[in-house]
Specification:
Blueprint: E1 14-15, E2 20-21, E3 31-41, E4 45-50, E5 52-58, E6 67-68, E7 84-85, E8 95-103, E9 105-114, E10 119-122, E11 129-132, H1 134-139, E12 141-149, E13 153-162, H2 163-166, E14 167-169, E15 176-178, E16 182-186, E17 190-199, E18 214-219, E19 230-233, E20 239-246, E21 248-255, E22 262-263, E23 268-270, E24 275-283
Length: 288
């Protein structure tokens, strides 16, 4: 299993503002620099393959007036359909959808247009199962930004695609539907929690990483760990990164099969615009 974090057709909560002045961010007096980063929240699938064929923006709330980002391009030589495997966008791996200058002013919406061939590979399997995405291919996956772009400023938005919530099994038919849930937040208004998960049974000099552990983040007031606000997996080095977290205090829970669940009692403080590095976190393997 591979692993990884706000109103789109299903759900998006947007917290947006400018990143800051960048003299190299725009080439004219009336342009702003826009960067869109795609990341993946955790989902228990081997692969989730989506075919993004266009990214567009709109300066109003209507269905007309869409403009394609000229800087959008994908070149996935590992996939014949040029699809993106969302499960690879974890532990700091991001996909930059565009990084370009556009005319300043109101930016109301963006949308991702999906093509054919979207598919999922279940955990432990190799066969692709087609994902039904009729509405997405017709009108795109709309994200409301509703922010004003100031001339000469750079804006970076994180698009966090929640795979687990986006894939819905259609009863007992064996079919699966893609109903994307994406959380979008301005990078400047958020912070990051990062760290590494290792096996507590190993010696200090040779701590073995724990791959594919699930790291959940909860508001510090959620002391019963009922409603995670973000999650991700550790990579093959045991590392994880949770991006796009609003400033505040958080608790963590780390789960991995055959290991004791670890929960934190001391809140982790997230400051906007900064990384909070938790270092190495040890979890204990369950002995038979």
């Amino acid at each position: 299993m591979k692993l990884s974090k706000l109103f789109l057709v299903a759900m998006i909560f947007a917290t947006l503002s400018f990143v800051g002045c960048d003299n190299n961010g725009s080439n004219g007096d009336n342009t702003s620099s826009i960067q869109l980063k795609l990341v993946d929240a955790e989902g228990e699938y081997e692969k989730v393959l989506v075919n993004i064929i266009d990214v567009q923006y709109n300066r109003n709330d209507g269905d007309s007036g869409w403009i394609s980002f000229e800087g959008f391009t994908l070149a996935n030589t590992d996939d014949p359909l040029n699809r993106v495997d969302l499960t690879e966008l974890v532990a700091g791996n991001t996909l930059v959808l565009t990084d370009e200058d556009i005319e300043s002013g109101m930016l109301n919406q963006i949308r991702l247009i999906l093509g054919e061939g979207n598919a999922v590979v279940l955990d432990g399997e190799t066969a692709e199962i087609p994902l039904s995405t009729p509405s997405a291919m017709q009108s795109g996956l709309k994200l409301h930004l509703d922010t004003t772009l100031e001339p000469g400023f750079s804006y970076t938005f994180i698009l966090d695609w929640d795979v687990q919530k986006s894939i819905v099994k259609a009863g007992t038919s064996g079919n699966y539907n893609l109903k994307p849930v994406i959380r979008v937040i301005a990078e400047v208004n958020s912070g990051t929690i990062l760290g590494r998960v290792a096996d507590a049974a190993e010696t200090e000099a040779a701590l073995l990483p724990v791959e594919n552990a699930t790291v959940y983040v909860y508001n510090a007031t959620d002391v019963t760990f009922l409603t995670p606000i973000a999650s991700t997996f550790t990579n093959n080095e045991g590392r994880f990164i949770l991006q796009g977290l609003p400033e505040g205090n958080y608790l963590l829970k780390i789960e991995k099969s055959d290991y004791t669940v670890l929960t934190t009692t001391i809140p982790t403080v997230v400051t906007k615009g900064q990384d909070t590095n938790l270092g190495t976190i040890l979890i204990t393997k369950i002995t038979p």
